[in-house]
Amino acid sequence: MRNQGLDEVDYAPGVLATVFAVTVRYRRPILTISVVLAVVLAAGRRLSPVLDAILVGVSFVAVMVLLLLSLLGLRGRRPAGLLVKPAVPALAVAPNTSYIYLAMGLTFLGSLLLGSGDEPRYLVIPYLVLVGVNVAFAWGGDSIELQPDGIHRRLFLGSLSVPWDALAPGTPSRPPVDASVLTLAYARPELVRRRGVVPSQRLSIADIHAWFIADVIRHYVDHPQHRAAIGEQVEYERLWQALTYSSTRLGQTQDS
């Protein structure tokens, strides 16, 4: 059984799994390079007709490849694993690579559509806003982290902090295996802190195995002595040993 958080992001077999894992780990520099490169391609197209034709072809190929990778990411299995983040410290739900590749694809599509300089001005700003929103979501997105003091969720429009002591003992129970939302049950709702527009009891779990995340949260609700070590690799390994299944078994359950 593998214990490294990144290794558990098992979206696809073989080479694709490696590509997706690297994309997740280095998504911010990759997104930054994509935006810079798209701007360079758009500017270079105006230097000469020949260069324009070459760069149009390059941009088109980039868009097609990135959109294909985005679709492959959507079809991948939801991982039964978390990213270990000792610096925070936290165990985090890994972002879905589909959002990252979609943001990159839209960025290069913008270079393709807006690089000629002949596009209507009323289309430029809305499209740039669309690209900006997608890049920002891929950069941070809907992040969920389990920290020593509780569950933390951050969205564009707000944040949610749920101390472990706020949750009802023995919860949450396992939702349907294909569930995209996990509902939290509170014993002390007055401890919950919410800012902005974010649900107070519902966590988005579309990017992780539903049973796995429910079992992990319930484990820390019922075993407060282990919370202080959350975010340490040793604790993540202990957690895996405490749970009675492996990621492979969960994947087989989900596919059946």
Mean pLDDT: 85
Residue fraction in strands:
5-15%
Largest sheet: 6 strands, antiparallel
Distance between the termini: 21 Å
Biggest sheet strand line-up: 1-2-3-4-5-7
Question: How large is the count of helical segments?
Answer: 8
What's the Cα radius of gyration? 21 Å
What's the β-strand tally?
A: 8
Question: What are the salient characteristics of this protein?
Answer:
8 strands, 13% strand, 49% helix, 256 residues, alpha+beta
Summarize this, please?
The protein has 8 helices and 8 strands, in the order αααββααββββββααα. With 256 residues, it is α+β, with helices and mostly antiparallel strands.
Describe it for me?
This protein is an alpha+beta fold and 256 residues long. The chain is elongated, with a radius of gyration of 21 Å. Strands 1-2-3-4-5-7 form a 6-stranded antiparallel beta sheet, with no helix packed on it. A two-stranded antiparallel ribbon has the order 6-8. Helix content is 49%, strand content 13%. Residues 1-13 and 245-256 have low confidence and may be disordered.
